[in-house]
Amino acid sequence: VTSLSEKYEFGEVGRSLYNFIWDEFCDWYIEMSKIPMNQEDEIQKNVTRSVLSYTLDRIMRLLHPFMPFVTEHIWQNIPHDGTSIVTSQWPTVDQSLMFEDSKVVMEQLVEIIKSVRQSRLEVNTPLSKPIPIKIQVKDQNVQALLIRNQDYLERFCNPSTLEISTNIEIPEKAMTSVVTAGEVILPLEGLIDM
Predict the structure, then answer these.
(1) The Methionyl/Valyl/Leucyl/Isoleucyl-tRNA synthetase anticodon-binding domain covers which part of the protein (predicted)?
(2) 161 pLDDT above the threshold of 70
């Protein structure tokens, strides 16, 4: 956003902000944050709240040149430092807040969730209907990673059963999708007439 603003490419700034706010922050982070916010771990809840608040603050600062009155009003109603968003510092990249491992995990989860949702659409099976889901992973590290984040897969894929393994028997009638983590398998028996 900063480099585009410096080049006076304000249309691209708007597009970048829009894509980040809707496609990343709202569609994924806010939705995924509901899982730790509904669990018992108070430390995780506080971390999640802090990240949401920090990100919303930075979004308001980036949007402020385009929507000054709205962003000032919102900013005044969230935790902040200073008296006005006008005098707050322009956001910069803080390398200490870059967690490459978390980014990779998130990308893999999102890819799997999108794959399952697309496969469901192709066989006309609504997300509200639980279905068996199998994920054939490349190795045990990926398996451990997905098992640690199984709550997200269960919430966003609605499996009746979820199997994550390096050695899965693929049913004869199944829909498969190749993803970075391995392969997503939806057994089709009972889902469509064959």
Answers:
(1) 1-134
(2) yes
Query: What is the reported pTM?
Result: 0.82
H or E segment and range at residue 13? helix 10-19
Assigned domain for 192 exists:
no
> Around Cβ 113, how many Cβ atoms within 10 Å?
20
Q: Closest by alpha carbon to 150, among 187, 96, 113? A: 113
Domain final residue, candidates 56, 80, 97: 97
Residue range 34-49: mean pLDDT, rounded: 93
Would you say residue 30 has pLDDT above 80? Answer: yes
In whole angstroms, give the CA distance from residue 152 to residue 109: 8
Q: Would you say residue 81 lies in a domain? A: yes
**Is residue 83 located within the same domain as residue 62?**
yes
